[in-house]
Design a protein that fits this description.
Blueprint (H helix, E strand, L loop, with lengths): L1 H9 L1 H20 L6 H7 L23 H18 L6 E2 L6 E2 L2
Antiparallel strand pairs: 1-2
């Protein structure tokens, strides 16, 4: 018990960082939720863009600069997960132009 307390005392910044990571990661680890900008999907992309969803002018988009989530990150995650399920290491992505390094 004393060794654990000495470790925490000597490495308190690291312990604080891990506690904060655990707190902010709790929705992912406990409930299976992932961070996803759903307001951007329904507020800036068709066919959801035409529907007002109860708002007068449409869904307010908080940060339109993160639109790469739908055009790049989601397909990349799908490719990586598919490759890993097939027991392959996704080093090269053949689906973009003539290919590009993936990892």
């Amino acid at each position: 018990m004393r060794n654990i307390l000495v470790f925490i005392y000597k490495n308190w910044p690291l312990v604080v960082i891990f506690i904060l990571l655990f707190i902010f990661g709790l929705p992912f680890f406990r409930y299976g939720k992932i961070p996803f900008p759903g307001d951007l999907l329904v507020g800036a992309y068709y066919p959801w863009f035409d529907y007002k969803w109860g708002y007068i002018t449409g869904v307010p988009v908080k940060n339109p600069l993160i639109s790469d989530v739908f055009s790049q990150f989601v397909p990349w995650k799908y490719y990586a997960i598919t490759a890993l399920k097939q027991f392959e290491i996704p080093l090269w992505d053949w689906s973009i132009f003539n290919g590009m390094p993936f990892m």
